[in-house]
Amino acid sequence: MSWQAYVDTSLVGTGHIDKAAIISIAGDSTWASTAGFTLAANEMKVISDIVKGDAGAKDKAFADGLYIAGDRFVMARAEDGTIYARKVGITSPEKRPRGLTSSQGRDGIAVAKTNQAILVGHHNENQQGGNANQAVQKLADYLVGVNY
After folding, report:
1. Following DSSP, what letter does each residue of 42-111 receive, concatenated?
2. Cα dihedral angle (24, 39, 136, 16), rounded to 10 degrees?
3. Would you state the pLDDT for residue 92?
4. pLDDT digits (tens, 9 = 90+) for 75-133
5. Alpha-carbon gap, residue 94 to 27, rounded angstroms
6. Is the N or C terminus of the chain more exposed, i.e. has fewer CB atoms within 10 Å?
7. How many angstroms separate the most distant Cα atoms in the chain?
8. Which domains does the chain carry?
């Protein structure tokens, strides 16, 4: 299966992810992505550093946020080669959906590292973060099992 087929079928095709990318473990190239979901070179490098265990990169992302495709996300978890982050919400209290603080949002990112690749899945407000995480992790587990 091609890398693009994994994005289209095994990530977006689950219905739990609306945009996705597969990047190199070095964080220096995109192997496949959903149209319009473009990660900048510096964004890929930071993701790579975090999933490979760079404590400084992880601490900086927790403090300053993680940027994915130009959007800022608040780190919720980064451990064992995975990242989960939520999109920063609207900061003006009167414009915020009920119950959300300025650091919360409904969109999220699930990231998982394999031996050679990093999977990045985005879910929107109509999709559940837990299901998105499972979809990304399921593909990561499969790829690790076939030595990718």
Report:
1. HHHHHHHHHHTT-HHHHHHHHHH-EEETTEEEEEEEEETTEEEEEE---SSGGGSPTT--TT--S-EEEE
2. -160
3. 44
4. 999 999 999 999 986 544 454 455 555 445 689 999 999 999 999 999 999 999 999 99
5. 39
6. N
7. 50
8. 3-145 (3.30.450.30)
Q: Residue 88: its pLDDT value, please?
A: 82
Backbone angles phi, psi at 74, to 5 degrees: -95, 125
From CA 124, how far away is CA 138, in angstroms rounded?
A: 19
Q: What is the pLDDT of residues 3-21, one digit of tens each?
A: 999 999 999 999 999 999 9
| N-to-C CA span, the chain | 12
| Among 9, 8, 19, CA closest to 121 | 19
Tell me which residue of 19, 3, 69 sits closest to 39, measured CA to CA.
69
How far apart, in whole angstroms, are the C-alpha atoms of residue 49 and residue 36? 24
Looking at residue 27, its amino acid is: G
Question: Which neighbouring-strand residues pair with 79?
Answer: 82
Say what the pTM is.
0.88
